Amino acid sequence: MIHVHPYAERTIGRVLAEKARRVGDRPFLHWEGRTTTYAEVDRLTTAHARGFAELGITKGSTVAVMLPNCPEFLWVCWGLGRIGAVAVPLNTAAKGEQLAYYLRQSGAEWACADAEYLDTLGPAMAGLDVRGVVVRGEGGEPPVPRHSLDDVAAASDAPLDLPYEVGPADPALIMYTSGTTGPSKGVVCPHSQGHAVGEQMARHCEYRPDDVLYTCLPLFHGNAIWYTVHAALWADASVALHERFSARSFWAQVRECGATAFNALGAMANIIWQLPPSEEDRAHPVRTAMIVPTSPQLVEGFRERFGITVTSVFAMTENCAVTVLGPHDDRAKAASAGRVRPDVDVRITDDDGLPLGPGEVGEICIRPHGRGMMMLGYHDMPEATLASVRDLWFLTGDRGHLDEDGYLFFADRKKEAIRRRGENISAYELETILCRHPAVHEAAAVPVPSELSEDDVMVYVVRADGTDPDYAELVEFAIDRIAYYMVPRYWEFVDELPRTPSLKVEKFKLRTAAVERREQLWDREKAGITVRRDR
């Protein structure tokens, strides 16, 4: 039974203080052989909060945070949250105009960064009104006043006495969307949102105080910070944090920290699955793994090979856990993103906003039941915020369907849908089928404008190791398994797909490249391969 904090207490300061009083001696964070207890987390984040306040950072101040996975990432973001400042976690791979965009669009007044990022962060600050940068480590010369994070952390950890209140509806984070379909939007997340996710995950995934939740995903992404760290926080459990994913080290790290649960994106899970079978495949304490997105093959394969129960969710940075595939859900629903829970209403609608019935594919729309479970809006983008809501329903921009039992099946991004000859094509479905070919490791389908209006289908293929298929072979494979109108016209083999640091495929880059290089792509029509309706 998890300890449930009522809405009024759902700020990071109140939650951490309560944890310190009730379970202060319990371990919270495992990092490079060191363990930090709940009580120590409370003291560390209080000290950081006071140190930031002494610099003049206060309620509403926006602070860009560019740190790798490390304990300081949490102490910084939570310390800022305790004084009502707004942390802006930045993609550590960002540079140039993209990084400048994040700083400019968020209105960052301060920055907190690892010294290794100063060479890229400095030029991005040019012309912006950034008052100073707090630096972790040595080296680098920022173009604005420099302060040491060690000095910030050395402030007193005496209880804060703020001249204002920090409430659950106050902004805690501005988190940037991955930008897979266009420019990134800054999602303004209240304190209560991360806690709502933590409560959902602890309850639906049945995390316990003796659990150790492993993550190597970047903390600047919602998966790690909310679906692992906040989930552990709400379960009175602990987090085993690692800097990045390494297939070679993964199982050794899991065994060393005694992890009982981990989260993985679909690409990461596939890499784990493709590791050579070993006698030690079950020599670990892991009970559950949350994989997003998942598949029947992974659910059954992880159960049989590793003895692990796979869970999953449908979620976005803008909201919370919309649906959950829990540890006790029907494994026959493994292709789904989980079941609609009492926390959130889900409706599938057509393009006019009219509700559709079970099995009918349309836009996934949601409406949470509790307070504070969603974003406050997109930062400085009122039009985009307004466009995200219709008839009091949040429009996810994703398409899918519900079955008769309330399980949600994802189809594709609405902006990624391919329309050919009057038919809507699910890129996700097409990719899934193509990946059943033994020579296909990954596939990504995108629309290319057709000379006849609407779209032609283009697919990028990453070949499986040791294979060398030709295009015609894959076309024939597709013809035998999918509707005639779905068979791609354009094909290209690539060594890898472009991804965000959170491992999402950057479809907009693939679309742009396909349009620009259309004449260089392999074209089945030019190759004389026609697809008839009756084949």
Structural topology:
Blueprint: H1 12-23, E1 27-31, E2 34-37, H2 38-54, E3 62-66, H3 71-82, E4 86-89, H4 96-106, E5 110-114, H5 118-124, E6 132-136, E7 146-148, H6 149-153, E8 171-176, E9 186-190, H7 191-204, E10 212-215, H8 222-235, E11 238-241, H9 250-257, E12 261-265, H10 266-273, E13 288-292, H11 296-306, E14 309-315, E15 321-325, E16 339-340, E17 344-349, E18 362-368, E19 377-378, H12 382-387, E20 389-390, E21 393-402, E22 408-413, E23 418-420, E24 423-425, H13 427-434, E25 440-449, E26 455-463, H14 471-479, E27 490-493, H15 507-516, E28 522-523
Parallel strand pairs: 1-11, 3-4, 3-5, 5-6, 6-7, 10-11, 10-12, 12-13, 13-14, 26-27
Antiparallel strand pairs: 1-2, 8-9, 9-19, 14-15, 15-16, 17-18, 18-21, 20-21, 21-22, 23-24, 25-26, 27-28
Give an overview in words:
The chain has 535 residues and is an alpha/beta fold. The protein folds into 3 domains: 41-156 and 166-191, 3-Layer(aba) Sandwich (Rossmann fold), CATH 3.40.50.980; 246-414, ANL, N-terminal domain (Rossmann fold, 3-Layer(aba) Sandwich); 420-523, ANL, C-terminal domain (GMP Synthetase, Chain A, domain 3, 2-Layer Sandwich). It contains 15 helices and 28 strands. The strands form 6 sheets. A 9-stranded mixed beta sheet has the order 2-1-11-10-12-13-14-15-16, sandwiched between helices. α1 (12-23) runs antiparallel to α2 and α4 packs across α5. The mean pLDDT is 93.
